[in-house]
Here is the input.
Amino acid sequence: MKMRKGRNRDLRHNRMGILGSPLLLSVCVGVGVGVGACGDGKSEDTQREVQGTLRFSAVVGDALASCTTSYAGLGTTSSEAKLGDARFFVSQIALKDGAGAWVQPTLTAANGWQSSGVALLDFEDKSQACSDTGTVDVNEKVEFSVPVNASVAQQSKGLRFSVGVPFELNHNDSATQPSPFNVPGMFWSWQGGYKFLKVDWLVDTTSTSTASATTRWNIHIGSTACSAPAATSPPTAPCGRPNLATIELADFDWRTDEIVVDFGALVENADLSLDHGQAPGCMSSPAEPDDCTGVFSALGLGFESGACIDACEGQSVFRVQTAP
Amino acid sequence: MKVTTDESRMRRCHRGFEPIVFGLAVWLASPTIGCGGHERAPAAEEIAQLLRLPDGFPLPSVPADNPLTREKIELGRHLFYDPALSANGMQSCASCHVQARAFTDGRETALGSTGQVHPRNSQSLTNVAYNATLTWANPLLVSIEQQVMVPLFGELPIELGVTGHEDLVLDRLRDSPMYRELFAAANPDAEAPIAWPSIIRALASFCRALISGRSPFDRFVYGHDAQAISDSAKRGLDLFFSERLECHHCHGGFNFTLSSTHDGVVADAAAFHNTGLYNVDERGGYPDDNTGVHAVTHRSEDMGRFRAPTLRNIAVTAPYMHDGSVASLEDVVRIYEAGGRLLSGGPHAGDGRTNPHKSGLVTGFRLTDGERRDLLAFLATLTDQTFLSDPELASPFEE
Here is the structure.
């Protein structure tokens, strides 16, 4: 099945049928007991579910993120650059209720963008600057369900999510995993797992190491220092540098708010006019502190530790705004 | 049927150019000429068995209107190796796609059945069942069924040269008791099974069966045999998958190409890259007859973009690149080390390293001689000797 152009198109695979489709779920709420896809013998209330959406909006500073725009004033040296790729995984999603308790919604499975509690967000459409590595389809939302009697079913007071894929799902063989774990271009290797976040910039850069001109400053965040016998083996213990940022946003009500992701803020502490060797930009290698430390700090991550500093509270990439 | 091979005959080959035969594509898709519509799609296990999928390989996507059957694969194998499929009887698919060379021909660029020179290097058919797009640089060719019509019917250049001689070729097949039997078995519901749609479907089915995944690398990874590859190759493997070399960004995944898809993949997997081989006009231009995806889309950013081929069996498919212009695998590695190719003389002189359309991942790196040997040793572990000599994929005809 080939994807066609269109925003937020449902990527359900044909074989998955219509179970979990919005239509059927709304039937569940209306009818309650007895619908095969919903009922499992529990009380009527827990069988009913509310469908919700986490809406994301990508910007670069004040402008909408797009493959066709040239952005000025980026990073510590005020570079001018174009977005060449803009995708990231989110997982371990939880909504905070009015009493301060966290509730984990269920990510609907019948959708090629989501599987096993992990969703791929994709803000590039392969046009112009994104034509080298991008994909045509975009996805700017996470679809979930919660029981109708859950404390967050009508309103939430906060949101928590991780930028990336949890260790236990991160090192499978991409070739045999369901979508979005099989999306080409988002997998490094068994050892490294997935690129949690892939935000590439097209920019004129001076490199300290390469023989030729560099036109790209790539940001590929993912786990490193993963011990495995070879790049083609999954690690047997969690990676030395997980690099999985956990973002907590206060005062987030999924009914009325959206999450803004600012790719300009991601590079506000980085110098896009210079590449300090190794891969162009920051590809999370422990050998790239000069390129990576600033990027990691924008996500609240420590570069050396690969973990959140103060619960990633210092992150500047994600914020809440009232949905238009 | 006995087919003799005339060694003195000019070897004429090629595959991969894209004069698009959309009229034929429509004709093939027409339900009135189809296979009867009674075919049932085989179950996943059955497809895996028919294709003899190795451990760790996902199920390839198979078009719903061409379900795999053993009979179709067998008919396709006969057609693939039979020069009767070319108008002048000089060439078969196998003329350019030689099994021992992982279904390539060893030539820089191919020659058609009438002697026309093809601008492209004959591509390996290794694992084409997984190709996100077919041929070197055509985002519009997404099924093998579409692709096989190019060498059959293409007129620029002429490959098998069937256009204008369709009935001549069909009559040859209809006159053969062997083919009458093979076609009837492959198309049990058809009243007149010997027709172009069934030829195309059978060829595509055989091409899907060209699965290679039993190399030393596979024994190392999927077979968990730590001794399957040398220490040098293991060091090369780690270099290959390193952020320093960046090889795996375009040649990643089980099939060693990002441009790979399979059953269950819903994301768009088409991918084309400019690797800085040419820069004939200081503006990033490629030679006129080989501009890559640009020839199809006419978008400036597509200049010089070609599909990253699988690296499986890469050691036996020299010469390399879309035009066969790089003689050895070591030369290929050296070009990537330099971040492109500087051609200081000749008709296509120019500094590809500064090609403005070059992929941002081709920035160059430095290797010691030992590291280069390690990397080449790793690439050699992708050679699947079983595939290169598998009798089930070989010519059914006496040589």
Q: What stands out?
A: Chain B is about 30% helix and 0% strand.
